[in-house]
Design a protein that fits this description.
Strand order of the largest sheet: 4-3-2-5-6-1-7
Helix content: 25-40%
Number of helices: 6
Shape: globular
Oligomer: single chain
């Protein structure tokens, strides 16, 4: 099993790191599946809009929803996330199969057993290399999910690229 997670300190930095990782890995010719996130600042809100791009070259889906200026709850639009999950699940069954699954975040939805969580399990069962973003609030849930087998990756683009290439080579030998 080749499962890694990355955490950064700065808000939005994990999203930028995983987006850059996707670009590098695609340029290197690896077959990708998954989602990466971009955040767009809103002109009328202190929060940002959250969009995910389905890899390798799929649809961009807005996964945030406006709940109004007084709202304090989670802004995730679960229906939009599940649409992205469905597209990624379909991509896992393509021939040739993706070598790498990138997941923008193992968040509360995944900690509760939904979202990209089943996709991560499916990708690992198929022998894919998986890299996921994780935030501090959900790292314990991620470690429980991975049964302690996931490696924490250095939040550095070159280090992540090297780890993925090494893991893909190992996975190819194992299959």
């Amino acid at each position: 099993m080749h499962l890694s997670y990355v955490m950064t300190q700065e808000r939005g930095a994990t999203d930028k790191l995983l987006s850059a990782l996707a670009e590098r890995l695609q340029a290197d010719g690896l077959r990708l599946a998954g989602i990466v996130q971009t955040n767009t600042e809103c002109y009328d809100n202190a929060l940002c809009d959250m969009d995910v791009r389905v890899l390798p070259a799929g649809e961009t889906i807005r996964i945030s929803q406006s709940l109004g200026p007084e709202a304090r709850g989670c802004r995730l639009n679960p229906e939009a996330l599940e649409r992205a999950v469905g597209q990624v699940t379909a991509a896992l069954g393509q021939d040739p199969a993706p070598q790498v699954l990138l997941v923008n975040k193992f968040g509360k939805h995944e900690a509760d057993g939904r979202g990209m969580r089943p996709v991560i399990g499916e990708a690992l069962a198929r022998g894919a290399v998986v890299v996921s973003g994780v935030n501090r609030m959900n790292v314990e849930a991620f470690q429980n999910f991975s049964d302690g087998l996931a490696q924490e990756a250095e939040p550095d683009l070159d280090a992540l690229v090297n780890w993925v290439h090494s893991a893909v080579a190992e996975a190819a030998k194992e299959s």
